[in-house]
Amino acid sequence: MRLVAQSRRVAFLFAIFYGLTTYLVMEIITTQFGEFLSYPFIPLAFAGLYQAMFKDYRRWYLLVIGVIGIMYAHAPTSLIVIVALLIFYLIFFTEQPVNERLTRFFYLAISAIYTLILSLIVWGPLATLTLSQKLMRPEPQNLYKDPQNLFTLFNQSIANKGIGLILLFFLIFGFLFLKSMPKVGRLAYFGGIATLFVLSNLFPWNLIHHLPLIRGIEAIQSGHRIMPVVLMFLAAFGAYFINAKFNHHWLSACGLLIGFSFCLLNSFSYSALYPMNVTTSQNPFDNQFDRTSQPELSYKATPTHQIPRSNLNLQNYKVNNEDYNNQFPTDNGSGRTDYLPTTSGHYIDELANKAAILNGQSFKIAADSIQSGSNVITYHLQVPMKKATFLDLPFIRYTGMNYTVKFNGHPLKSSLSKRGTFKLRIPKTVNQATISIQSHGTKLGSLFSMLSLLGWLGLIVLGIFRKRRS
């Protein structure tokens, strides 16, 4: 924020409003770690674009670092931010000095190319696998079927959920103070209003959802993922507001805001976010898979697979020291088949239950017989196997990946089974066997990693050079 406002005070206030909003804390509690990790980079991406368009375009690398940080953390948020940055550029293109537009566009093109190079380490392997075989994709959701109801959003914010009480205040009453705000502060407020309108049920998604571009954007799966952009704009407006209205009592205002924010966070009923904590038979939203097989974090499933309490009133449930670890939900199956080979997706239940097939006969591999290492899985099988029989292991084999398979320490060739897994031809009769499968990444993985590494080294050298020069 300091890159935009040229003020440490505004930047510090922005950090309070943006960093302590309940929406971001909610992402930690609901274990949406990828989305949470992307949020600090969203303001940096916008600040980098602002620098490239209106300030020092030689600081284009800030835009690169911001967008790459989001890409490394969460793919759908990357799509949201890239679209938002493009819209920002088109809206304010004419605000740039006419004689500088071509130069600034040139540096933005460098940013785009450099971002592509640095992102190869993430997107390169995925592109390789996608081109090598047909993969299952995250289930798309039509944005016009999943808008954010403004009335519900306001109610949640009053209860200090969603955008939270503080930012809700700026959203509702901010227009009263626009005249006393600097231009960037006013634009931040209107940006928050416009972005909130786009993700709300007031936006006419039903009229434009059929357009090819909109259908591509539906990969974000849900409109609520646009909310961090709303929070960023409202937090920026709030920072300008407090700095303008309490300039002579800035330190006291910061202390009060921090204390008030922590009080709000402390009063927040985190477990109210967990309808998924209820048992499968009692929760109509959770009917895909048995959630009891793979606990998340340190949650220990109770016999009823729910938070230990006498009733199901999640709104009134409070977390204390004794049951803190019990607040986390068990696996609900969401995303369980994303990016699996389509052939393997039909066998997801038996693969998740570690079902192997020996010469046509299925058997379950015990959990303590499986050992994981650095990109390697080792099976210790206490099962008699005859020479020339076939063993189908519950390990998915991607066509675009390189693997090394060893049978009792000796390399062994493998083939693809009908389940999309490793199929081995037993080399000799044994009563027990140790089988290891090690992944070496995609066929072009080393090239992608090298290009990204060279890109980062170049960026570091550029930063050192600029610092010495200044």
UniProtKB/TrEMBL annotation:
<feature type="transmembrane region" description="Helical">
    <location>
        <begin position="444"/>
        <end position="465"/>
    </location>
</feature>
<keyword id="KW-0472">Membrane</keyword>
<protein>
    <recommendedName>
        <fullName>Membrane protein YfhO</fullName>
    </recommendedName>
</protein>
<feature type="transmembrane region" description="Helical">
    <location>
        <begin position="60"/>
        <end position="93"/>
    </location>
</feature>
<feature type="transmembrane region" description="Helical">
    <location>
        <begin position="187"/>
        <end position="205"/>
    </location>
</feature>
<keyword id="KW-1133">Transmembrane helix</keyword>
<feature type="transmembrane region" description="Helical">
    <location>
        <begin position="105"/>
        <end position="126"/>
    </location>
</feature>
<feature type="transmembrane region" description="Helical">
    <location>
        <begin position="250"/>
        <end position="273"/>
    </location>
</feature>
<feature type="transmembrane region" description="Helical">
    <location>
        <begin position="158"/>
        <end position="178"/>
    </location>
</feature>
<feature type="transmembrane region" description="Helical">
    <location>
        <begin position="225"/>
        <end position="243"/>
    </location>
</feature>
<feature type="transmembrane region" description="Helical">
    <location>
        <begin position="12"/>
        <end position="29"/>
    </location>
</feature>
<keyword id="KW-0812">Transmembrane</keyword>
